[in-house]
Design brief:
heterotrimer, A mainly beta (73), B alpha/beta (360), C alpha/beta (253), B: 360 residues, Rossmann fold, seven-stranded mixed beta sheet, five-stranded mixed beta sheet, 15 strands, 19% strand, C: alpha/beta, globular
C-alpha cells in the first residue's frame, strides 16, 4: 500500500515565505515564478507525483493556506 | 423604618457595593481609603452574593482587572486615593475608549507626589478633565456625606451602564474617614448569567454563541477616519450625559446676591458659611454640584442675573473656579478661597475671605 | 492516479479550522505568530470550546489577534493582559481564558502583572511569544534579546554592561507555586509544531481542572526584525536562541 497526496494552495493568501518548501520530505513543492496580486511568489506543487499527503507543509504554514488530501492506493 | 448604621464613608462604599449587587471589587491598599477593601474582606461577600473581592499587586493591575471584568458585562469597581488614581489613569483611558461601564472611587488626599494622607480636593482637574490620555470624560459624582458614599455606588453603576462609561465617586479624606449614620438599602441580587447576556451580548466578552461572531473589545483604530468617527461618537455621548445627568443642590439661593459654590465636604462648610453670613446681613446662597461631570452649568447660568459675586471654595489651589469663570464669562466677579495640603478651613475663615473678596 | 481524484472532500486530511476567520493575517511572511494562532484555533475547535473561550490580546504585533480567531476578545493595555484575564476568569469560572503576549508585553512592561497572576495561580492559559525583539515598533531590543544581538536600539549588539542580560522569564515563572504547567516550545518544523499544539491543548485542559496557571512559551522568529529570510530565521533561532532558551517542559504537575 502506498500513499498518494495532493495539496490545494490558496494562492492569493500565500505570502511565499518558503518555510513549507524546506519542510517537504518529498521535494514536491516549490515557489512559483509568477506572483499573486500582492507580489508574492506563491506555493505550488512542482512535482505532484511525489506528494504523499504527509501534511508537513500545511502544519508549518503560518497563514493556513494549504489544504491537504490523501488516498491509500 | 430602614436600618441606620453608624459607619465611616469608606465602609459605606463597601456595604453599598455588596448591597447593590456588585460583581467584583479589585483594589490595592492606600490611605485614606483602605477600609473599603478591609470591610469587604471582613464581610466575605463571595460566600453570600458571590461577589469577587481581590487584592491586586498594584493600582495599575486593579484598574486592568476592572477593565477585564467590565468587558464581561459585570458590575465591577475599584477604589483608591490620589496617587493610586494617577496609576489608574492609563486603564481609565482604555476603559473610556473601549466604552465600558465601571465604578472607581477616589478618596482624595493632598498632592502632588506622595503628598499627604490628609484630605484634599486636588484631583478635580484629573477627574473632570480626564487624567489619562485622549479626549475622554468620566461621570463624576461628589459625595458630601457617608450616606452619599453609600448611595452613589448604586447610582454610579446605573449611570456607568446607561452610558457604557466609567463613573467616578470623587470623595475626599474627610468623607471617607468621617463616621455618620447611613441608611442601608435593601439587598439587590447580582445579575444572573442570563441577565448579563440579555443586557450585554452585543458587545461583552461572555463567550460567543453560534448565533453571532466573536465580540472584540478594543480601544484601537489605526485608520484616522475610523478613530475620528469613534471620537465624535464619544463626544456625542458626553453631550448626552451633559444634557441628562446634571445633579446639584442649592441652599438659600432664592434671594442670594452672592453665591458660594463648593462640592464634597466643602459644601457642608459652605452651608455654615451661608448661615453665618446671613446673620451678618449678607444675602449669600450655596450651590453644591453633585455631578462634577456633567457640571451644573445651566443652574449657575440661571443665577447669574441676580448675583453680585461668586466664590468657589475648594481644598486645592483653585481648580473648579476655572470652570465657573468660563460659565460666568466676565458677567459677574468670580473669586476663590482654598486651603491645601490637608488643611480644612472653618466657616469663619471662609466668611472673612468672602467679605474681603467682595470689598476688594 | 489523477490529482482530480485525490482532491475530493472525503480525502481531506488537513485544512484551515473554521475557528480561524477568513481575514488575511497582517503578519510578515513566515512569522511564527500565524502558526501559533492556528494552533490555538485548532485546539479550541478540537475541544469544542469556541463558545466558552475568551482571548486577551496584547500590545505589539499580535494586538490584532482578535481579527483572526472567531471568539470573544479583549484587547489589553501594554503588559496588562494577565490582570484582565484574572478578573475575567474569576468572574466567569466556567470559561476558558487565555492571554497571548509577546516578549515586550509580558517580560518587560508587564512583568508585575504576569508574575502576580502566575503566583496567584489564576486558572488561565498564557501563550508567550518570545522572538527576542520588538516587532511592531520596528525591531528594537526586547528583554529577551540575546547578548550580541543587533537591534535598532542595540546597533552594536546587546552588551551586558550597557543593556543588561537577556531575561529568562519562563524559568522565573516556573519557580512560582501558582503555576502548574510551564513549558518552552517552538514552531519551526512539523515535529515542533505538533509538540507545541500538544502543549497548548494541555494548558487549556489544565485550566478546566483548576490546577493553576499554565504557561506556554513559544520561541519564535521575527525575520523582518532580524533582517533575514523566514527560512534563515528558523536556522538562526535553532543555532542561537535554543542554546540560551532550551526547549522542553520546566514544570508539569
Amino acid at each position: 500500500m502506498a500513499l498518494r497526496g495532493a495539496i490545494v494552495v490558496d494562492t492569493e493568501r500565500c505570502k511565499g515565505c518558503g518555510v513549507c518548501v524546506v519542510n517537504c520530505p518529498t521535494q514536491t513543492i516549490a515557489l512559483s515564478k509568477e506572483v499573486n496580486s500582492k507580489g508574492y511568489n506563491f506555493l505550488y506543487m512542482e512535482k505532484p507525483e511525489n506528494c504523499t499527503g504527509c501534511t508537513n507543509c500545511a502544519t508549518v504554514c503560518p497563514d493556513a493556506v494549504i489544504t491537504v488530501y490523501r488516498v491509500k492506493i | 423604618m430602614a436600618e441606620k448604621v453608624l459607619m465611616k464613608g469608606n465602609e459605606a462604599i463597601a456595604y453599598a457595593a455588596i448591597n447593590c449587587g456588585c460583581d467584583g471589587y479589585f483594589g490595592y491598599p492606600i490611605t485614606p481609603q483602605s477600609e473599603v477593601m478591609e470591610t469587604l474582606m471582613k464581610e466575605k461577600p463571595w460566600e453570600t452574593t458571590g461577589m469577587v473581592v481581590l487584592q491586586a499587586e498594584s493600582e495599575t493591575s486593579s484598574i486592568n482587572m476592572v477593565y477585564g471584568g467590565a468587558c464581561c458585562g459585570k458590575k465591577v469597581m475599584t477604589s483608591s486615593s490620589s496617587p493610586g488614581i494617577s496609576l489608574m489613569c492609563e486603564g481609565l483611558s482604555y476603559i473610556a475608549g473601549a466604552e465600558l461601564p465601571c465604578l472607581v472611587v477616589n478618596v482624595m488626599r493632598g498632592g502632588p507626589g506622595l503628598g499627604t494622607i490628609q484630605p484634599s480636593q486636588g484631583d478635580y482637574f484629573q477627574a473632570t478633565k480626564a487624567g489619562g490620555h485622549g479626549d475622554y470624560r468620566m461621570i463624576v459624582l461628589a459625595p458630601a456625606s457617608a450616606q452619599d458614599m453609600y448611595d452613589f455606588v448604586d447610582l454610579g453603576f446605573e449611570l456607568a451602564f446607561k452610558y457604557r462609561n466609567p463613573a467616578m465617586i470623587l470623595g475626599d479624606g474627610v468623607i471617607g474617614q468621617m463616621m455618620e449614620k447611613v441608611e442601608i438599602r435593601p439587598q439587590k441580587a447580582r445579575r444572573t448569567e442570563e441577565e448579563v447576556r440579555a443586557l450585554c451580548d452585543s458587545w461583552a466578552t461572555i463567550g460567543k454563541p453560534e448565533s453571532r461572531r466573536g465580540n472584540t473589545i478594543t480601544s484601537l483604530a489605526l485608520e484616522a477616519d475610523v478613530q475620528e468617527r469613534h471620537n465624535i461618537k464619544l463626544q456625542k455621548k458626553y453631550a448626552e450625559i451633559e444634557a441628562n445627568e446634571v445633579r446639584y443642590s442649592t441652599y438659600k439661593t432664592e434671594d442670594a446676591e452672592h453665591l458660594i459654590i463648593a462640592f464634597g465636604c466643602m459644601s457642608r462648610i459652605g452651608e455654615a458659611v451661608v448661615d453665618y453670613a446671613r446673620e451678618q446681613g449678607y444675602k449669600v446662597g450655596l450651590l453644591r454640584p453633585i455631578t462634577l461631570f456633567p457640571y451644573p452649568k445651566a443652574a449657575i447660568e440661571a443665577l447669574i442675573p441676580q448675583l453680585k459675586s461668586i466664590m468657589s471654595v475648594e481644598l486645592n489651589a483653585g481648580q473648579m473656579v476655572e470652570d465657573i469663570k468660563v460659565i460666568a464669562n466676565g458677567r459677574v466677579p468670580v473669586n476663590f478661597y482654598g486651603r491645601q495640603g490637608g488643611m480644612i478651613p472653618d466657616p469663619e475663615e471662609v466668611f472673612e475671605a468672602f467679605v474681603k473678596s467682595i470689598n476688594k | 492516479m489523477d490529482i482530480k481524484d485525490i482532491i475530493k472532500p472525503e480525502n481531506k486530511v488537513y485544512g484551515k479550522t473554521p475557528v480561524l476567520k477568513d481575514a488575511v493575517l497582517h503578519y510578515c511572511p513566515g512569522c511564527s505568530h500565524g502558526v501559533v494562532h492556528k494552533l490555538i484555533a485548532e485546539v479550541i475547535e478540537e475541544m469544542g470550546i469556541q463558545d466558552k473561550t475568551i482571548g486577551i490580546s496584547p500590545v505589539g504585533c499580535s494586538v490584532f489577534a482578535y481579527n483572526y480567531l472567531d471568539i470573544d476578545w479583549q484587547q489589553a493595555a501594554h503588559g496588562r493582559a494577565p490582570a484582565l484575564a484574572t478578573a475575567t476568569k474569576r468572574l466567569m469560572p466556567d470559561k476558558y481564558v487565555f492571554t497571548y503576549q509577546g516578549d515586550g508585553d509580558l517580560a518587560s512592561i508587564g512583568t508585575a502583572e504576569i508574575m502576580h497572576a502566575c503566583n496567584r495561580g489564576e486558572n488561565i492559559v498564557v501563550i508567550f511569544i518570545n522572538n527576542a525583539i520588538y516587532g511592531m515598533t520596528g525591531g528594537q531590543m526586547a528583554p529577551t534579546t540575546l547578548l550580541g544581538q543587533v537591534t535598532a536600539t542595540t546597533p552594536y549588539g546587546r552588551q551586558a554592561d550597557l543593556n543588561g542580560y537577556p531575561l529568562k522569564i519562563t524559568e522565573l515563572i516556573a519557580q512560582l507555586e501558582g503555576t502548574c504547567y510551564v513549558t518552552r516550545q517552538s514552531v519551526q518544523n512539523p515535529a515542533a509544531v505538533r509538540k507545541t499544539k500538544k502543549a497548548i491543548r494541555k494548558a487549556f485542559e489544565n485550566s478546566a481542572m483548576n490546577k493553576g496557571t499554565s504557561f506556554v512559551e513559544v520561541v519564535s522568529t521575527c525575520n523582518s526584525g532580524w533582517k533575514t529570510t523566514p527560512v534563515k530565521a528558523n536556522k538562526w533561532m535553532e543555532e542561537n536562541m535554543f542554546p540560551f532558551y532550551p526547549l522542553g517542559d520546566m514544570k508539569d504537575r
